[in-house]
Amino acid sequence: METIKINRKIDSTHLQIDELSNWMGKEVDIIIKEKPSKPTSVKNTAAGLLSDFKNKTLIETEKKGWAKAVREKHGNR
Description:
Elements: H1 46-50, H2 59-63, H3 65-74
């Protein structure tokens, strides 16, 4: 007994599945099972994990942080 697995998004009630040509004229069982949806969570990224610790008052300062660090270290030459 041979088994195949085909992953597709169904967008019509009429399916054309070329992989079924080997089974033409044979009796088969067709089972359709919905895939579980993937959770779309921000917590899966490093930014999402660290979001609990952010300090909103420092966000503007951080945007200018590189330039400020260079000025402090090297000054105006």
